[in-house]
Amino acid sequence: MTEETGQPLAVVPTGQYAVDMRGEYKVPGGKLVAVDVETEDGRLARVAVSGDFFLEPDDALEDIDGALLGMPETATVAQLAGAVESVLGDDVTMVGFTPEAVAIAVRRALGHATDWSDHVFEIIHDGPENPAMQMAIDQLLAEELDEGRRGPTLRIWEWADPTVVIGSFQSLKNEVDTEAADRHGVTVVRRVSGGGAMFIEPGNTITYSLTVPGSLVEGLSFERSYSFLDDWVLGALADVGVQATYQPLNDIASPAGKIAGAAQKRLRGGAVLHHVTMAYDIDADKMLDVLRIGREKMSDKGTKSANKRVDPVRSQTGMAREDVIEAFKSHFRGRYRTQESSVTPEERARAEELARLKFATPEWTARVP
């Protein structure tokens, strides 16, 4: 008994632990899924799924809850989703969510995955950098997060020079007319992530990077993580009057055409580098002179002309580039916890060395000739 109340102490039997936890997952373009769970002896002892989704018939919700009972705390997203799928008959309709979404919410409740609200994002918007430094800063910030020396970041890039950035695995000669690039004063660099070539001119491009822990995209496929990490920018574009959607695998588009392309790099420690280049304005003739855009890519995108593939933000908003960027940052601050930051002098020195030894070298740029 306690001295204060005279009531007996509650005793939890050895080997049993009852813990009540809650996790949420917002499906990109879909609905919110919430899961309350209790665990005992390392297994799910109580599960209650809820949300603003649609489900028919009603009693399928009880089946979903029941399917998860007894699952190990260590179960993967695939295992949890499989358990849910196993009890769904042909007559069940899920609208706005999926078995995978339920599984991710369970993993978040158990602390294996994190939500945006679990993190404070550092917003970095420094001055213009040369192309090799942009690549180096991106890699460095991702490595800093991977090593636990920095939190997650949103970095807005400012470009010092016209640039073509090619994907890590692209052929230099197949993607870029280097003579035309030299003629136009365009620097060619290679990034660490895959994906396609991006044509960039200072003042005509909006580029940002997200560096996030792997726990934020835990359970998501590579494909789904793209739209998940860029869901915020669709809202930001809506704020400035652009109705954009995500086009698999990695494009952001409006009804008038492509707006942006994304790419990712996963580090060994789990950190995710996700960067997006968005056309604010564009010199299409110069772009087509420098880039070798093949017929196969045109046919895959369903268009006959590369000029028609990109629909710049400027033409859709009438806003100055600086105002669009400020609107983007304001939207991000409104959705997530943030603090202002900058690349530190020590980080800058290391990035300069990385740029000199790697990203500015002909060997790296032409590593796939």
Structural class: alpha+beta
β-sheet strand percentage: 15-25%
Name the CATH superfamily classification of the largest domain: Bira Bifunctional Protein, Domain 2
Task: Output the number of helix runs.
Answer: 14
**Which oligomerization state do the chains in this entry correspond to?**
single chain
The low-confidence parts are 1-17, 301-306
- As for the number of domains, it is 2
CATH class of the largest domain: Alpha Beta
First-last Cα distance: 77 Å
CATH topology of the largest domain, what is it called? BirA Bifunctional Protein, domain 2
* Proportion of residues in helical segments: 25-40%
Which strand order does the major sheet show?
A: 12-13-14-15-11-7-6-16
Taken in chain order, the helices and strands follow as EEEEHHEHEHEEHHEEEHHEEEEHHHHEHH
Structure in a nutshell:
The protein has two domains: 19-109, Enolase-like, domain 1 (2-Layer Sandwich); 116-365, Bira Bifunctional Protein, Domain 2 (BirA Bifunctional Protein, domain 2), CATH 3.30.930.
